[in-house]
Amino acid sequence: MDLGLNPGLLGSDFAITAATLTLGVLAAARHGSHFPILLPRTKISSMESIAGFILAGGESRRMGTDKWRLVLDGQNFVERIANAISAVTPLRISPITVVGNLIDNDAAGTRTDLPIAPDVYPAWGALGGVHAALSACLAEWALVVACDFPFVTSELFVRLASIRDTFEAVAPIQSDQIPQPLCAFYRVRPCLQRAEQLIKSGERKPIALLQSVRTRWVPFSEIEDLAEAARFFDNINTPQDYHRIARERS
Hints:
By secondary structure, the chain is an alpha/beta fold. 24% of the residues lie in helices and 15% in strands.
């Protein structure tokens, strides 16, 4: 597979050494609802090198409602995914962050109290969401997961994190051989730089980012031994998808 590597972007491991930075505090309200406040950025040591991000900014046209609000086993999708991500992130330093310009966070009786990072490039699709996560990340690595993967597990993330080595990204390949850029680890410095370049060129697909940095592609055969592996990438896009999984869990 031609990954389109750019030698100028290939770098060695790096640790964040800058002094404490401050992320602007978001205090916006629309239609009477309030966004959670984005927490101040703090220095993250090399031993605490992963921060988690959940992409929830899609338009959800086929679902007809925000997918992150959907509930399964008593938790909304964001809560389920955050619980899984917490196995590889230092919550006391870097709370798991939801990415997207969420509107009416209190609507429909379902909300998230997690910090929110707004899109830097609104309405720029999945690559825009990955870029926003990388822009908000102070850790060396960002684990970026789409909100419509409610069956991902902590075991999956521990496995993927364990094989980062000197790569610039780690991305699983589904059982149908489709690479999955929205359940992947990204090394922030090289990936943010490349994502910015791609967006400015008009690119919108996150797979282009993985193809242009040094990515460790993880065949499904390397994760299929994990519990629930067959469901990791069961993407919930329509009401029919949601009703199907709800029936299966009842």
